[in-house]
Amino acid sequence: MWLMTPIGFFSIVEKPYDRYDGMLTVRARVEGDLTSLKSRYLPELGQIQADQGTDYRYRATAPREAVARALSQLTLDLDYSNFKDEVNRMQGHERARVYGEVWHCLYRLEEKFKTDY
Fold it and tell me: Please, which domain of life does this record's source organism belong to (predicted)?
């Protein structure tokens, strides 16, 4: 699952080795995103590992239930009316610009798969 939030961008997956101990792997492109997630919402997040040559350079594991609680709290804390503006406020213009590029790429889906209701 991709998760874009005002505090960072995350990819949350269940790796084969996670399945046996109830864990999920939380990955990020920016180490500070994981640090922010850990300090604000997910203190159970394990040690952040940096790997070369992987799809996401930074990763850590956390119990599945703790990740669910963190996502719930992120939702409960949502108090902004414009996501990109909140990203700009929390993380700065450059991060908001990158998120805007992602928004634009995803907007193409709306045009390509337009349906009449």
Answer: Bacteria
Residues 56 and 25 grouped into a single domain = yes
Q: Rounded to an integer, what distance in angstroms lies between the CA atom of residue 101 and that of residue 24?
A: 28
The total domain count for the chain is 2
Query: Can you give the C-alpha Rg of the chain in angstroms?
Result: 16
Read off the pLDDT of residues 18-69 as tens digits, 9 standing for 90 and up. Answer: 999 999 999 999 999 999 999 999 999 999 999 998 999 999 999 999 999 9
**pTM listed for this prediction:** 0.91
Residue 87 in contact with residue 78, Cβ under 8 Å?
Answer: no
The Cα 61–Cα 66 span in angstroms is: 10
d(CA 108, CA 71) in angstroms, rounded, equals 27
Full residue range of the structural domain in which residue 31 is found: 1-79
Q: Mapping DSSP to helix (H, G, I), strand (E, B) and coil, where does residue 52 land?
A: coil
